[in-house]
Write a structure and sequence with these properties.
Four copies of one chain form a homotetramer. Chain A is α/β, with parallel strands linked by helices. Helix content of chain A is about 35%, strand content about 20%. Chains in contact: A-B, A-C, A-D, B-C, B-D, C-D. β13 of chain A pairs antiparallel with β13 of chain D, so a sheet runs across the interface.
Chain lengths: ~375, ~375, ~375, ~375
């Protein structure tokens, strides 16, 4: 099948942030072509946005409903293969549901949905339709995250005892949502668009997903202290959580939007019986391996014999830094490889059949609900 | 008074660790002279240890009781001015009590005592006698810790919202206490010498002390998950604690001896409404100031206009790294200046009248008790 | 003009390194479409490579001559707009010359050409045709390089006194060129394909270009010690150079392929009368500003009020690391904007009319010739 | 011999910098006692300085001549064992010569002397008298410098190909020597007190000494560009030097006092056929080992199985940072051990018989002379 995989986008019009990220990520590896979009609920804005992207006018739609309906009506060799959903949380479910019901694969931004009910319904639909669904917990796309996961799977650091995962940001230290130019702040702090959680939903889920993805462990109990520091804000902007995992490991997760001066400092430390691992998203090509009683090693993207999982997600030689967009692109590329295999009636290569799924999305939504519940509870431990 | 301040030491004989640190710290600034010691409960070992230190044989004692009694009997111009106690925890109280009761000032290693009762009794004795008592929470002696404290006092980072203090070590990842050569591991994991806590008493208290010292805040509530990971170990080797402070700030404290590959990685982050501060003990001459919406600044020992409190604890020009012994020495030097002022009938300079006191020690012991209580409790929040 | 800019590629077939980089860089920002290519001098390999890229078979050519001839014959609305040349050095000139002579704009990998004569001829052709020519000294595409350049232009660090630019690599520490699978090593160490220089041509020129681009200064004199350490290697693999600049500044440039364990560690320090700047390619989102007598500042991509030049080359918010491909993509995007402006009869926005030109390429070739001359000379200073 | 080694000091009175460093370094390990001093050429200032140090008035002298004469007249069991010389360069020779001629061992600050003639004379006197002479090239005292030296001696990094040693400072970026309060700047920029060189003598020699000490190699040729950037300054404040070593290795040495914003950033990189080493004085407890084709290792003071030479110069466990004063103290401690062995008629332990000697001092003076000669020469290479 000698053509690129075809993407239709919902959301991501002029002024959006994450839509552009998705488009760059989809374009990077030359596997995906943007063929259509419903970029805004405002048809005129959608039209202008589509023109910016050099789309033909008949593939720029005024709504996701129109897009899905009209694309479905196109001949098979022409219509989009999948829908990419890059809207705020409350608008994930409607297009995702309709796409799945009409036979389109889906890439969806995280968290999966606005509430648990929607999350479960999407999981049910994916299972029912057998379509491919990727959730963009993009931080799992980094090569050194793959390396860490492979090392742990291989027993290199022994049994895991302790996990510390942090996601501090400082950008909402003031009431930025009151500034009209701050669309990103506005919807993220608005319960009608973001859902029941602020920081814990926006970035706490990334931390949860990263910890579980790397370690292969599941959180079984949690005890949370969830706070809103900025006066008048309607959702949480900080949370500190004690964790317990299914193998007996203990952990700490904290996420914050009021950690003044922090950029996007997602990081994780995992301590096993043989070694500790440490990874920082802001310097993602480095993985620290802290051995018991021998010198720490610095693993670097592209240096030496990394695991195949890390190599398969590395594009360029050592010392040529790959970043956020490359990791994001790896989600899209892997998804595209799997869609292509499906279209060609083949089995996807397991090394690329590796991206967050609708089930990870349900886990993430459940994390959000439990952490908010725990934050309000006088009970110490909440089962997850 | 043209002479050095005279120190008698209890503990710190051959094979000890912290005794040598105290001696180097006391010697560094040329204010203190070691004049006598009871270096071991084994008189022969005490004698040999004293010879190593070039002490005259009549000032090497077989027990602290002998030392205090005989030194007291010496003429005022000759006898020791203070006792330095560098024994394991269960042997802090007896020499401290006897020293105070016999009119000697005291420097004591942390934690203050074996149990709360002893701690309260020492606090009572210090108040009663008016003698000077320093507890070697040495990490407060670093110049950049002084700088952080002064910045916060001055309002530079605004109101504090969040504090994250960590003290990970990995040296007890295996059951080191079974190795006969590992004296340090043995007593620290032995309830009869260490007290009710392991990691939380040995290093958790340092973290608590550092957080309260720098911020000037007090912990009011805590919720702890305290663990023993190494099979057969009798005391905790890891603890994760949610904190609440008296101004409404939230916090996390975690300390560990099983964080594989970590050396002595005490560090703290403090987020205010205007900026965040970050400091790592292992690179102590750097203080990160993360401003809202403007570039991060790197404050360095000796560079630019630091607060007088930082300057007063800096010995050498920028770029000539000062370390652990220098910070420890600052506790001794400050103590010595205060003893000298007392001997000369003067008021100590406030900038040097700055070292952890018996009251800090009582706070630290209370922290240990509460954290162990919380670790065992099903109740979420424990008042401190 | 509502379409993407159309690229035809010369080189970059299966097994190549830099061709894939150019394609990812061209694709990232959605401004450029790969429409055709002559990916190898072996027509069959070219065909297979073009199929990998989903090109229609009639736009995959067996040679650059065929590509240029046939594309020129296509209607204006269909044919390629520019040629991207990603072959080894000895094959830059022929396709570049033919492209220019046939009215196509050019992007060319560095160094500009195989020898000085070719370099001057290309410069002449660009001037004569008025076509747009970009040389991919990609490291100038980083946002913090733009920031450094803008700061210096603005006088923020005062008059420049000293420049230290380094480009250490270690990958050629052994005779890798003898390994048949090492195409990259083979041509870079082969005088018939690389030209008169090895390390100094491959990476020394990047260092020279970076130093002159950031500072706006020109090298006027140099004194070089150029070496070949690996026995039997035909070209230099290390060079150390003293520099003098046109404003009186002094400098050091060193580049190496035998600095064992170094990845791709291009970095630069520039010291002025008011401050010093420091930048590392391997952590490209950070720019250190070392002020006289006040704390160092850490400028970060996306944080605070950077100069417009830096902001215009930043895609995503602070803390989401941008890397090598993004910087490379900025060269392509800026080039595409300028080609678009030309096609639309407009003047290019000066902030984007910023990429290395054929004249920078001539300077680079001259640097290579002078440094090799100096390396062989007993005379201390060689005029540049 | 149960007593400390006795030190008499020349220089280091009130307001001095390096005198205090020497005293702290001598005191730290409890091996040395300051018993007398001639702290200033102004007898009254010497007296006050001695009182600050709690010396008895009869051991505070008005001149080094008086000190040496009177101490020599004291009974053997009472008089000083060695003289520590901490004066500006022009005052190294007179007290060193007199001390040696009167049978006292000597510790002398670097560079060895004011000129070559004095240097050779001191070397002659040391050989003639057989007395112990230590030069405080203190940076060789760091444990990780010892480790690097031992690794190289042991062949761990293979044959050395390239050495880059840097010593940038920024403190003389302005004409600080005009400020009356800046004694340190004044004498260092004054040819009548500093000698023929400024930066190259003050810190260039440290860089030269460090490179030769760690590698065991000798510089055989050099080519220097030596500059004075600050108008009106009489000595060099910057120098860039190409080096060639006796094994064929190439190198770069640069030292500067006008590298704005640099503190005391001595650092070195050494590349061998098997690995590269990197060490920064400002974070001295870390040694980077960059292996060919496998992950970089981070060696840390006190972690794992370092060479005995490193362990013998480490005082406290891993993660408790040792700094500048500790490294300086190791010179004094090793010297004291050797003096003690001499006094006791024993052979010094080779692991401690390790400190810079008068011969290293002659090498350093020769380096200064050659670098200044090369800076003025039109000849490319100067033999050393």
């Amino acid at each position: 099948m000698s053509r690129k995989i075809r993407m239709g986008m919902v959301g991501g019009g002029r002024g959006a942030f994450i839509g552009g990220v998705h488009r760059m990520a989809a374009a990077l590896d030359g596997q995906i072509e943007l063929v259509c979009g419903a970029f805004s609920s405002d048809p005129e804005k959608s039209r202008l946005s589509g023109q910016d992207l050099f789309l033909p006018s008949d593939r720029i739609y005024g709504s996701f409903e129109e897009m899905i309906t009209k694309e479905k009506a196109l001949p098979q060799g022409e219509r989009m293969d999948f829908v990419s959903i890059v809207t705020p949380n409350h608008m994930h479910f409607p297009p995702a549901k309709m796409a799945l019901e009409n036979g389109f694969h889906v890439v969806c931004d995280k968290p999966l949905a606005f509430d648990m009910e929607e999350a479960y319904e999407l999981e049910r639909l994916v299972k029912q339709t057998g379509l491919i669904f990727a959730l963009t917990h993009n931080y799992t796309g980094y090569p050194m995250v793959k390396q860490a996961r492979a090392m742990i799977k291989n027993g290199d650091i022994g049994d895991i005892r302790k996990i510390v995962v942090e996601y501090p940001q400082g950008w909402l230290s003031t009431k930025l949502e009151e500034d009209d130019s701050q669309k990103q702040a506005a919807w993220r702090t608005d319960p009608s668009r973001s859902g029941i959680a602020g920081a814990m939903g926006d970035i706490g889920t990334h931390a949860e997903n990263l910890a579980e993805y790397i370690t292969g462990l599941h959180i079984t109990e949690m005890c949370a202290d969830v706070s809103t520091f900025v006066p008048g804000r309607l959702l949480d902007d900080d949370g500190n959580v004690l964790l317990r995992f299914n193998n007996g490991a203990k952990g700490i997760l904290h996420a914050s939007q009021i950690s003044a001066g922090e950029e996007n400092n997602l990081n994780i430390r995992i301590y096993g019986t043989k070694a500790g691992l440490q990874w920082f998203q802001m310097e993602p090509n480095t993985l620290y391996v802290k051995w018991l009683n021998r010198p720490m090693e610095i693993l670097r993207t592209g240096v030496g014999n990394l695991y195949p999982e890390a190599q398969a997600h590395t594009r360029i030689p050592a010392g040529h830094p790959e970043g956020y967009l490359e990791a994001f692109a790896s989600i899209y590329r892997n998804f595209a490889y799997c869609v292509r295999a499906r279209l060609e009636g083949k089995t996807a290569d397991p090394i690329y059949n590796d991206f967050p799924t609708v089930t990870d999305g349900v886990r993430g939504m459940n994390f959000i609900y439990k952490v908010i519940e725990s934050g309000k509870s006088a009970q110490k431990w909440i089962n997850v």
